[in-house]
Design brief:
The complex is a heterodimer of chains A (237) and B (362). By secondary structure, chain A is mainly α. Chain A is built from 9 helices and 2 strands, in the order E-H-H-H-H-H-H-H-H-E-H. In chain A, strands 1-2 form a two-stranded antiparallel sheet. In chain B, the strands form 3 sheets. Chain B has a 5-stranded parallel sheet with strand order 2-1-3-7-9, with helices on both faces. The chains are: A mainly alpha (237), B alpha/beta (362). The structure holds iron/sulfur cluster (2 copies). One iron/sulfur cluster (SF4) binds next to helix 12 of chain B.
């Protein structure tokens, strides 16, 4: 039997752009951040001619601002974007989908609801690992940056974070901890994406480039669909 | 001495010339980081204001702050402290003892209700009703409450008073708490450090007696003039940090070259203090300049964020017992195993499904 699929435009351009900018920014942030924490290389020569750590910190800061701007644009797109760019926590269906998908992922049930967009568990993970953790990592990061310019805007906006965590040492700790959250997320994310692409053969991976996913046409709908496709082909002849 | 005598009158009576008086005012302005336009204000204030009575309490502490304070290096500054303010009560300095001493304190409180400054060194103790520190028969916490009642402002001097310092470190057996936790209805200025730099406390007092208000504070409640900068951001070794040149052990070539002490456990990157700017002992040096990493003595719970000579990122987290990066790597490892297991499981299930399919087809 032939499996019929039709093409759906799922990820609009801003969503895809967000995804890749985010991926790049997080990678740079993680690598530079870890280096700032553990500077393993010693620069040879005189200090006057070198600015290695300074540059690492510069790239960390630059990517951080890109990361933040990117998040803000995406936040806007939750509102402006299509159906698949939204997350609706307050809907009953969302939570029943969380249960159903969780059961599917833990092999408690074989059948699984097909999603063109994200399933609810994925959305929940994005909410926790990208949005909530992102907010915290941004707050702690800006709090530490702000200290370099005590009378600057950043310090006046985010100065409360340090007393909130009692001291800047803890702010730093939390910042690092969350960074590992991103590594954990990446691992799970990559696995799930490849798994999805292989099992459901729906073009998940390529959809992040071109935006299209391939939705299965349900068996009962297929009959009619086949006819119409045949008709279409006729027309083209 | 009459109560209404101003600083200026008092100084003249002591034989200070007008010229020296003005010099003193200029110096204070410079210390507080004020611009020249503020200078007449200081002169004006000191010419008209009566001397400020100060009560100095020593609670649960080691007196290192008082030691530092007594070493206010600049002669004019120490002159200020011992001559210009009227330091009415300070256990370690006053001649009186026992009931006499307490009587002085009570008299100052009665004569200047709402008009004296209370400087507190040391923490209050709440454990077992506060028995771990008693002075003159009352617990330090009671003494603090009683004395703070009539104070115009309270200066929490030293890390004990601002964050309970070492005795407040886990498990904090005496339940030492910062002054803020006990005195809630007075303006409080935190002057942390273990000990703080002498010029910082004198500067804070000068500010108060000049303007009659507490100085501008940072987000952590400390005088901005002294505590707004990180030690790291003004450090003499910062260029080595930015270049990426780090001392790896106290006797290596880098240490001789004066490289950055980040990996030797320097807490400068998370510490807000005036060390790198004001420096210690009349600006002679400060720990990092002398080759010792900053231990972060002015930060809340600094003694819990130890070992002191362990690189910042490698300090074990108190709650977890391991440093965050180790935990992170562990979690990733476990998760990777999980992924492999899940993938294996998926393949198995898929395989079974296929078998069933072919069987049902037959
Ligand atoms: S010695 Fe400490 S405070 Fe100075 S630059 Fe290095 S890490 Fe920063
Ligand atoms: S260098 Fe650091 S530990 Fe040393 S006195 Fe200054 S703030 Fe405290």
């Amino acid at each position: 039997m032939m499996t019929l699929r039709h093409q759906v435009y799922v990820w609009q351009f801003p969503v895809r752009l967000f995804h890749w900018v985010n991926a790049l920014a997080i990678t740079v942030l993680f690598v530079t951040g870890m280096y700032i924490g553990h500077p393993i290389l010693d620069t040879p020569g005189e200090a006057v001619g070198n600015f290695f750590m300074g540059k690492v910190r510069f790239w960390h800061g630059l990517s951080a601002y890109i990361f933040i701007a990117n998040m803000i644009i995406r936040l806007y797109w939750f509102w402006a974007g299509n159906e698949y760019s939204k997350i609706r926590l307050w809907k009953k269906e969302f939570w029943s989908d969380v249960v159903a998908t969780f059961k599917y992922y833990t092999f408690m049930t074989r059948e699984h609801v097909l999603h063109v967009g994200h399933n609810a568990v994925a959305q929940l993970m994005y909410l926790i690992f990208i949005w909530l953790a992102g907010l915290l990592i941004i707050l702690t990061g800006l709090a530490m940056r702000g200290g370099s310019d005590p009378n600057g805007i950043i310090q006046s906006l985010f100065g409360w974070v340090v007393p909130f965590f009692r001291n800047e040492f803890q702010v730093r700790n939390v910042h690092h901890f969350l960074a590992w959250g991103y590594a954990l997320f990446l691992l799970g994310h990559l696995y799930m994406v490849f798994r999805q692409d292989i099992l459901d053969d729906d073009g998940t991976i390529s959809s992040m480039v071109n935006g299209y996913k391939f939705e299965l046409i349900s068996p009962d709908a297929q009959e009619g669909r086949q006819d119409s496709l045949a008709k279409e082909r006729e027309n083209y002849r | 001495m009459s109560k209404t005598e101003s600083y200026y009158q008092w100084a003249r009576r002591k034989g200070v010339s007008r010229r020296d008086f003005l010099k003193f005012c200029t110096l204070m302005g410079a210390m507080l980081g004020l611009d020249a336009a503020e200078f007449p204000k200081i002169v004006q204030a000191l010419q008209s204001k009566p001397r400020l009575p100060v009560i100095y309490l020593n609670l649960q502490e080691c007196t290192c702050c008082a030691e530092s304070f007594l070493r206010s290096a600049h002669p004019l500054v120490s002159d200020l402290i011992f001559n210009m303010i009227s330091l009415d009560y300070m256990e370690v300095l006053q001649a009186a003892a026992g009931h006499q001493a307490e009587a002085v304190r009570l008299k100052t409180m009665k004569d200047h209700p709402g008009g004296y400054i209370l400087v507190v060194e040391g923490s209050a103790t709440l454990g077992d009703g506060g028995v771990y520190c008693t002075i003159g028969g009352v617990t330090s916490t009671e003494l603090l409450k009683e004395t703070a009642k009539g104070a115009a402002a309270v200066i929490a001097y030293g890390s004990c008073a601002t964050n309970a310092c070492i005795q407040g470190a886990y498990p904090n057996p005496t339940q030492a708490v910062p002054i803020r936790r006990v005195v809630k209805d007075k303006p409080i200025i935190d002057v942390p450090g273990c000990p703080p730099i002498a010029e910082v406390i004198t500067g804070t007092i000068v500010h108060y007696l000049t303007f009659g208000t507490i100085p501008e504070l940072t987000n952590q409640g400390r005088p901005k003039a002294f505590y707004q900068h990180r030690v790291h951001d003004n450090c003499v070794r910062r260029s080595f940090f930015d270049a990426g040149q780090f001392v790896e052990s106290f006797d290596d070539a880098g240490a001789k070259q004066g490289w950055c002490l980040y990996k030797m456990g320097c807490k400068g990157p998370t510490t807000y203090n005036a060390c790198a700017i004001t420096e210690w002992n009349d600006g002679v040096s400060y720990p990092i300049k002398s080759g010792h990493p900053c231990i972060g003595c002015s930060e809340n719970n600094f003694f819990d964020n130890t070992p002191l000579y362990t690189h910042l990122a490698k300090i074990p987290n108190n709650a977890i017992g391991k440093d965050v990066d180790k935990v992170g790597r562990g979690v990733i490892g476990v998760a990777a195993l999980g992924v492999v297991a899940h993938a294996g499981m998926t393949a198995m299930v898929k395989h079974q499904d296929k078998k069933q399919e072919t069987r049902s087809k037959k």
